[in-house]
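Hey, quick one: can you model this chain's 3D structure?
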Amino acid sequence: MLALTLRKEDWYHYLMLFSLNLRYTDHWFLRILPHCNAGGIFFTFGLYLFRRMADGMSSFWGPVTSTTEWCETNYVYSSYIAEFYNTISNIPCILLALIGLINALRQRFEKRFTILHISNMILAIGSMLFHATLQHVQQQSDETPMVWEMLLYLYILYSPDWHYRSTMPTFLFLYGATFAVAHSQIRFRIGFQVHYIILCLLCIPRMYKYYIYTQDVSAKRVAKLYAATLFVGSLCWLFDRLMCKEISSGPFNPQGHALWHVFMGFNSYFANTFLMFCRAQQRGWNPKIVHLMGVLPYVKIKKPKSQ
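Sure thing. Here's the predicted structure for all 307 residues.
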């Protein structure tokens, strides 16, 4: 009597191949077929047909018009989502930014932090639109908020010591508006990346200054998490970008750019938390780091009654 159930080995082949986004080929199907029982044969053949249909899946959004693509096969799981993993990997960033936003509003932090958390959410949503469509217009909805977000970080980092308070936000606003217009008219992939890296580098010295002047051990730990997620996320980005040829010819795709999204979602959250702590110290709000459900750090403050 033929066994129609899936063996442990069949589930192993299925989970590895499906979750790691391998391409099903005739050669693979013929090679793995002898290792399956009857149930495994039907199941594997069904997956094979599914992937063959996916390979011929049409694009709802039309031809790719963005200036860059990432190392993920397009339109594998849906005709509406070009890069599936790169799209859904922005969800953690949205959720973390929402948690930060609720905390900022609930404790009545300055509006700059409300805007900062909202900008994190806008950036993640723009990134989802870009990776789902791979269209040039949606690419701007990802890259332009990236620059605006860094301008917000520059304002929060440097504004406490800026003597002419009205000039900094005015300059940064005009700078951001000018960039948005230029970026909508001119396609400069390498130029954008260099520009974004420069903005990030401008933030690091000030973050380090805040770190060395902070005595609270828990706050320092949050700053270290910020640095660690930035480092690991950057490695994932570089690996996906520079090793795409090797990844494409290898047995599976680790989805380095999707991992970059996840790490940068946590990176933004840790940066915001650390900056909120430092700003609360400057305002004399007696901040301390506590943990949501014993895991996720956030800032709790106690304002003087006069404020």
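One thing worth noting: The two ends are 79 Å apart (CA to CA).
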